[in-house]
Amino acid sequence: MCPEVRYLTEEKVYEILSICEGKKDYSPLIRVIGRIFSSADGLVQSFRKDEEQHPNTKETTAMEQESEASASMEGATGSTENRLGPVEVSVDIEAVRRVYDRLLSNEKMESAFLNALVYLTPNVELDLTYLDVYDTNPDYLNIFIIVMENSSLHSPEYLEMAMPLFCKCMSKLPLPALAKLTRLWSQYSVEHIRRMMETFQQLITYTVISNEYVSGSLVNDDEGVVAATKCLKVWELGVRTLDCRRPLIPFEEFVNEPLNNVLEMDKDFTFFKVDSESKFSFQSCPFILNACTKSLGLYYDNRISMYSERRITALYSLVQGQQLNPYLRLKVRRDHIIDDALVRLEMIAMENPADLRKQLFVEFEGEQGVDEGGVSKEFFQLVLEEMFNPDIGMFTYDESTKLFWFNPPSLENEAQFTLIGIVLGLAIYNNCILDVHFPMVVYRKLMGKKGTYLDLADSHPVQYQSLKELLDYEGDVEEDMMITFQISQTDLFGDPITYDLKENGDKIPVSVDNRKEFVSLYSDYILNKSVERQFKAFRRGFQMVTNESPLKCLFRPEEVELLICGSRNLDFHALEETTEYDGGYNKDCRIIKDFWETVHSFGEEDKRLFLQFTTGTDRAPVGGLGKLKMIIAKNGPDTDRLPTSHTCFNALLLPEYDSKEKLKERLLKAITYAKGFGML
């Protein structure tokens, strides 16, 4: 009976299983499983749907189309051509799940599935590589659908033997096949999606921790890790993380920390920029990298751009006989910092925007000192303090959220907003952290998206709550609320002005039927149209600096905020672990022990003041304070002098005070009155 079986159905499996259970001999079923599950043709023909089951497929497709229409209303794709199409598969997925549940409880059966997968994968890889089997038979995809329903794929036996081979096969599927798999799996429950995602993640982790990547051996050359990473990749299917507000699986769960720990980013960056045809770069799959690793890739890109600009400048100098400046030098007066910076940067932007990608050096007129980073930090800080001053009127400040937003009736010219954009871009480009407080929608808009109703939650919480109540209201909206499609705001002088969200808006009442349209138009006005002039100038300035960088393809909006603003989570124990000492100090000196005890005893505000005093910013860089290389250097014997700092080197110059009490008193005075003196 068994040798005649060429494919399996749920009924056939149970029939053979019943005979085996009666004889207490499972070898016939083991042989059948081994033969069918190791044969591509056998597996493709197995577990097919009956005709009466096809309506279920149509129902699923209808649900999917409804989901797509909803996504389109959110503006996810921006065009109808990118919508996901209906999914038609011939395999009965529920039947496959029931069979696996029934058989995998038997240890001998589990071994049969494992061995069959090991034998199956080489032939499937050859089929996909040389025969274009999916083009001639779309049902070939059934192999991958059936295998991925195996709930034991994450076990060590599979991870060691079968899964690396299977992932290589899957990574060779043509794009339409991968797209179809993605659309199918996106309809699964969160638990099923997470299990499949974790299978690939566990393969990467298992492989990475089982190998040593030394002496020229790179994780980029590990076929199993690369194939599993490609299996997680979805962006080339037209699905971008920027378009997804509430993913079924949080973005953070796609990050693989063990991989990040062994990845040599300098080499990976080279593969990404220069050798992408022959070498795999994990930057082509940025979802698997943490913000710290990606920021290192961005750092290399920025530094190479700066070096390239210096070489081009030197070449021009030789050819033209003119002495051109290889750096972006800004000379400004403290009391005219905005005017000076605006004139200089505006001139550069008009004459040669590429100069903005040179390394920045700032000089304050009448002051000595070479800019090794600290002067630039102070320049950024002073510019932002002045431009975000509420008295200037460029931005409004919300006391409840502690966030700034563009002031719609602002009288400032566009050049001022362009300058702010340039400053943010220069900060990223020159690896400086800024004290900027924008809502997340600003970073989404910088990445090319429009603000929507959901963005109002943190940018305009009062309006968001009002609109939410409108959407949730169960009574008669038109009679009870008496709202029209005309809204009212105040201008710069406090006088009311009206705006029609649509033509003749004052004559169109908001009702249950059109309230979603009202919310959409109102949100669009608040976040986009009312500040269009200001934001366009702001974004233009930002793109002058970052347009040629991989920023947009590597980072999500929240990661861009982290790049610009740093993290507010301060782990001073991590800082203590990485701090270096100079001038005769070491971690075992009495004063160093007193110093750290003192700093750890500080409140949150004093810790931020200390960080500002020593590094020029009160935030941690991407990756936390452990990534900050601070130096504590001896600055003479006991004295009444205050500690000083070189913010450009993150260096604290600390005299050897004779008591812990004096150390605390002097240090607190230094960090409290540091502005304008004590920081070099």
Automatic annotation (TrEMBL):
Catalytic machinery residues: C648 (glycyl thioester intermediate)
Catalytic activity from the UniProt record: S-ubiquitinyl-[E2 ubiquitin-conjugating enzyme]-L-cysteine + [acceptor protein]-L-lysine = [E2 ubiquitin-conjugating enzyme]-L-cysteine + N(6)-ubiquitinyl-[acceptor protein]-L-lysine
Biased composition (Low complexity): 59-80
Keywords assigned: Biological rhythms, Cytoplasm, Metal-binding, Nucleus, Phosphoprotein, Proteasome, Transferase, Ubl conjugation pathway, Zinc, Zinc-finger
MF-aspect GO terms: ubiquitin protein ligase activity; zinc ion binding
SUPFAM superfamilies given in the database record: Hect, E3 ligase catalytic domain (SSF56204)
Region (Disordered): 49-83
Enzyme class: transferase
GO cellular component, as recorded: cytoplasm; nucleus; proteasome complex
The keyword DNA-binding is annotated on this UniProt entry: no
Major place of residence: cytoplasm
Domain HECT: 352-680
Catalytic activity, EC: 2.3.2.26
Pfam family for this entry, one: HECT
GO BP of this protein: animal organ development; nuclear receptor-mediated steroid hormone signaling pathway; positive regulation of macromolecule metabolic process; protein polyubiquitination; regulation of circadian rhythm; regulation of primary metabolic process; rhythmic process; system development
Protein name, entry field: Ubiquitin-protein ligase E3A
Native organism: Oncorhynchus tshawytscha
